[in-house]
Amino acid sequence: SQKETKKPLINSRNDPVKNFEKWKKKYSKKKEKCKSHRKQNKKPEWQVEKETITRLEQRYSEINTSEIVKFSDFPLSKKTLRGLVEGQYRLPTEIQKQTIGLALQGKDVLGAAKTGSGKTLAFIIPALECLYRQQWTSDDGLGVLIISPTRELAYQTFEVLRKVGRNHEFSAGLVIGGKDLKQETACIHRTNILICTPGRLLQHMDETSTFHASNLQMLVLDEADRILDMGFADTMNAIVENLPKKRQTLLFSATQTKSVKDLARLSLKDPEYVWVHENAKFSTPATLEQNYVVCELQQKINLLYSFIRNHLKKKSIVFFSSCKEVQYLFRAFCRLRPGIPVLVLHGKQQQMKRMEVYNDFIRKKSAVLFATDIAARGLDFPAVNWVLQLDCPEDANTYIHRVGRTARYKEGGEALLVLLPSEVKGMFKQLEEKKVPINEIKINPEKLMDVQGRLEAFLAQEQDLKETAQRCFVSYLRSVYLMKNKEVFDVFKLPLTQYAQSLGLAVAPRVRFLLKAQNAQSTSVSKDDPGTASDQEIEAFKSKLGGKPADDQSRDDADNVNSSEEESNLEEDSEDDEQELSDNLKQTSLQFMNEDEDDDDCRDLDFLTVKRRDVFGIEDGSFIPRELDTTATVLANRQDESEQSRKKLIDQSREFKKNTPERKMHFTFVSVFAWLKFEIGYFLLGTNGSNLIMLYVYHS
Q1: What is the SS3 assignment for 75?
Q2: In sequence order, what are the residues at sequence separation of 6 or more whose Cβ sits closer than 8 angstroms to the Cβ of residue 614?
Q3: CA pair distance 448, 181, nearest whole angstrom
Q4: Are 102 and 250 in contact (CB under 8 A)?
Q5: Which of 91, 335, 398, 582 could covalently link to 393 via disulfide, CB atoms 3.0 to 4.6 Å apart?
Q6: Is 0.85 surpassed by the pTM of this model?
Q7: Each residue of 422-437: pLDDT tens digit?
Q8: What's the mean pLDDT when you consider all of the chain?
Q9: Degrees to nearest 5, angle at CA 284 with 283 and 287
């Protein structure tokens, strides 16, 4: 029994702890031995990259478009494929399938496809692969140049490049107007991929000594038709002449026009033409539902407000024809508070503000964006449900680009075009020629929400908002007047008075350039056929522009409205009554003497313009003072005293000239706005634009 107690409980050979330690020691030695062996046989990183590039290049000739289903079917580098996965780009579109393979083979490509078809990735991927094959570094300089028509499109392309190329070591730069030129100059020589607008690029070519493109491998022209439409043809020719001849060029556009083909002949060598939707039944996406509605001009704002109120949970873009129109309606709708965030995007904004609005609209799930055609080209706004064109587009191509902001990448969308009765026939004909399927829908006028009264109240409270509304009125008429297609756009058929009232204006401002155009038109017509245009018709149109009734019957009807509006008789804006003029006499006279504004529209709209008068009646032989006292009451007309003073002043001026032959005469134009009578005599109260002047005229 004692021997049994002395026996060990566990055999040393079967001890699990000791066995594990032995196994670990043996495994560690074996692992270190294998590791050292692999290290000895490991190839350098540059050699591995070179072998990978060689394998990829061998597969380029084997690319079959019909067999491409996903991006991994292309012979792309692992870094690019990883960037596509991280950017959530999974399946290639048709334009990407047909162009990426040709671009990887080093061929020049001229590609055309519908809006929203994914043309950006079609050149971003070949650009990254081009520099990857050559192991490009920052010391090699500029390798890829991408030119976009607008700052917003260039910024969007830059963001896509950052997503897809985040795993590569290339440096990329965004060179657009509105940014610091000195900062761009300091970094541009180290940039491998440069995304820019034509004007800014040409400026760097002319002014930046460190900028050079002698090693350029690829040139990309995005939205080439838009670049040429914006008047950059000469700029593009100058840019292309300064680039090396030995390069690859990719040119993309939504439409194939004659100007695009001319540019292709200058910049491309034996290009491959890729027109994805050439034989398509329609030129717009099949998932896009398109309708149009006929609406009177004075009902447009009510229609817009009603539309927004009925789509509070949707994401919509509303297109207008001018910046001034966008500015006024944005401010007005912010006051109306339709119940949904309202954003604005137009060309007169600062660049940082435009980028902020762009990113803000992308983040919001429901919002309304008021925009000009600056947002109609290339910009990718995700999940846009509606595109409303409140103003008729210039042509069918502009229409296609506008509606292309929705129904992108096989998603659904809806578009609504608002047409005036005079625009329906001509615009519908153009859309049919471009194979655009569009249907007419009717609206119930009784269901439209009337906001005219609220706008009138806003304008009565804010003078600045009223002036913005007047500029909006003139700017819209100017945009219609400058349209080339007169079959669609006829400014002389517009109900100007009713349109001004719909904006909240009591009286339609007088538009000078329309009066000149009407006078020129009537003169030319009278020379050809004197009997076609009568004086009554011309006077009727002039009255229409001035917001006055044309005939006696309409005058009688207008007498019941407001007598102050008739007696104001201002050329452009006769909405301020006589009491406002007397209360703000000094401020008004000085404010509106400054007519040097940068805005072209302001030159056609005289806000209480103070005209120069011949105060003493020397030139025309008459002395007609404007007898208004400080309370704007009219004094009794003194014809005999005026005649005596006129003769006396003429004699004094002649005598003064005789007695002072060697002295120079200095005259200043004084705008007289008050005629004062005191016991010591009469005084003229006026201003020369900067000073308030009181002139003693004569003693009674």
Answers
A1: coil
A2: 620
A3: 50
A4: no
A5: 398
A6: no
A7: 999 999 999 999 889 9
A8: 79
A9: 140
